[in-house]
Amino acid sequence: MSTTPKPHPQGDTMSQHAKETANRVASNAGEMAQDAAKHYVQAPAQDLFGLAKSYAKDNPDVAACWAFALGVIVGWKLKP
């Protein structure tokens, strides 16, 4: 004799509650990941640009040579 399990009287509400909880956790995890990405990508990039600007102010001739060299290399690589 096989018996089929009886559905839990609150089964639908429990699964709905589990879905809502999972959605809330996933949403919070996504927000935290975006905040971390902003901090760990944006802050170092701003620091690097600040360092490059201060170096260019102190050594404008060297910075101009680097800019020219990078322009030549990028232009050479993008040439059709």
Automatic annotation (TrEMBL):
Residues 1-37 are annotated as: Disordered. This is DUF883 domain-containing protein. The lineage of its organism: Bacteria, Pseudomonadati, Planctomycetota, Planctomycetia, Pirellulales.
